[in-house]
Amino acid sequence: xxxxxxxxxxxxxxxxxxxxxxxxxxxxxxxxxxxxxxxxxxxxxxxxxxxxxxxxxxxxxxxxxxxxxxxxxxxxxxxxxxxxxxxxxxxxxxxxxxxxxxxxxxxxxxxxxxxxxxxxxxxxxxxxxxxxxxxxxxxxxxxxxxxxxxxxxxxxxxxxxxxxxxxxxxxxxxxxxxxxxxxxxxxxxxxxxxxxxxxxxxxxxxxxxxxxxxxxxxxxxxxxxxxxxxxxxxxxxxxxxxxxxxxxxxxxxxxxxxxxxxxxxxxxxxxxxxxxxxxxxxxxxxxxxxxxxxxxxxxxxxxxxxxxxxxxxxxxxxxxxxxxxxxxxxxxxxxxxxxxxxxxxxxxxxxxxxxxxxxxxxxxxxxxxxxxxxxxxxxxxxxxxxxxxxxxxxxxxxxxx
Length: 401
Ligand SMILES: *Cc1c(COP(=O)(O)O)cnc(C)c1O
Description:
3-stranded antiparallel sheet, Aspartate Aminotransferase, domain 2, 7-stranded mixed sheet, alpha/beta
């Protein structure tokens, strides 16, 4: 198979065959055709961005059972807005000063084991992260990484929020963290960027008590790459909107949708806020709305079987490779799709890292999962792959062995 010519060929940029899953650095996911069409149509006429945000809010509310929703230019952008909302609340002066936080509570408490590279987004809004707990889980002493009392202990007058990164392995339970935070009226922000599917997760974190939840619009939802969803408390979403929407508005005619912003609560129009650099256009908003609807209507069990069957077919092909041991893993606790793991035997004379590098240098570039490359293993994720591309990936792997 020779992959079909793409727009990237036309632009003189190598196309990527994506066997690594929904990774932003290689373009995330394939946008749904209906979302791409919505973007093209949206580009041809105008709508008020705040009206589109209000429509998105209504849909996010229906899908998540949260009080309100909002769209920013990625899940990371939604995290900036979440932190900004928790720090500034309805204080126009504080909104104006962010990321400088003199005079307002700006600490975000989180378990040390929840820290990720993405928490830079919280800090970008002006938050100082106060991390608690240890990494004791792996000492084999029976201790956990963070005891609920440690979260309570870290909450002070300076606390703006508690942040939680949702993964199957994170602890303590989100419910417990929310209870602890709410005793002090402190909101909880949940990074659930990649936790869809299952669809059930759309409502799960709201039910657990979270105040603001972040999902990526460009991963399994398959909306525009530069979208992220913020779902949560109406007052906090309102603050996020005030700090994100273009605010070059004249006060006498400032009339944002009442569902999104209650102008009566504010002493005037805020300035362009910290979120202004995270803007989404009418195209992204239209695309995300259409994609989220399609995601909710999608048969996820069917999709999972499709992924499993694809991986099984690729596993058969992998069994014909010399010096490669394969296993089908995942699909359970830590990942949303099953994957094909390929362990490269020493006898191959080439390391897994060499293979990953070589495949990436081909034209088209081939990206396989490389998280366990230092253990001699690479992986094939079915989410962004067709059967034909999957076979091509294994053909090229064989050719490079
Ligand atoms: C992907 C991801 C993000 C960022 O999502 P974007 O939509 O690309 O901004 C944040 N947190 C986690 C845990 C993620 O997996």
